[in-house]
Amino acid sequence: MSTALDDRSPPTVVAHDPAWPDTFEAARAQILRAVAPHIQSIHHVGSTSVPGLPAKPIIDILVGVDDWNQARATIPPLQRLGWEFRGERGIPRRHYFVIRSPDGRRTHHLHMLELSSTHYADLLAFRDHLRAHPAAATEYATLKRRLADRPEPHRDAYQQAKTPFIQRVLCEIRSRAP
Asked: Is the Cβ–Cβ distance between 55 and 47 less than 8 Å?
């Protein structure tokens, strides 16, 4: 499936699947076998990592590295495992990969970022906030369903429409930080 079609396809938001953590763990084990010496951390992030939260059925994986340039060494081994390297895809100093099912649908996203990057910290903080604050998770679930149900929504428009909520939550988190 082409990138353009993938980005224009409507997002599918489904009920939380209790198998998502196991799916993450299988991918985690595969990634560690291939590139463990080059990475410092690996986390399940995104909506599939929040119990009870509806999500697009795509496992988001956050990999932390010390140095973005040195992490380029992970690209060939991950590609040999079927991870499609997509470059930075709009986030500076990110190595971004996807896995697709045989019909071309994305099943996994891998975001490889430096441990010191704001985006790395934000992904973890947002996940942790939703896990700890059921009201925020419910509000986010309602937003996601409403956006996915719009007439002819596109993946990019869906992502952009979620941004104000995500930014508001991150601002709240930062305002409470010591």
From this structure: yes
Asked if residues 130 and 49 have their Cβ atoms less than 8 Å apart, the reply is no
What residues contact residue 112 under an 8 Å CB cut-off, 6+ apart? 39, 63, 65, 71, 74, 94, 95, 96, 97
Residue pLDDT, tens place only, 85-98: 999 999 999 999 99
The separation between the first and the last C-alpha atoms of the chain, rounded to the nearest angstrom, is 46
Token pair in block for residue 69: 């340039």
Using alpha carbons, select from 170, 137, 144, 141 the residue that is nearest to residue 158: 144
CA–CA gap between residue 64 and residue 80 (Å, rounded): 20
Return the CATH number of the domain spanning residue range 3-176: 3.30.460.10
Angle at 109 between CA 91 and CA 1, to 5 degrees: 100
Distance CA 45, CA 62 (A): 6
Name the pTM for this structure. Answer: 0.92
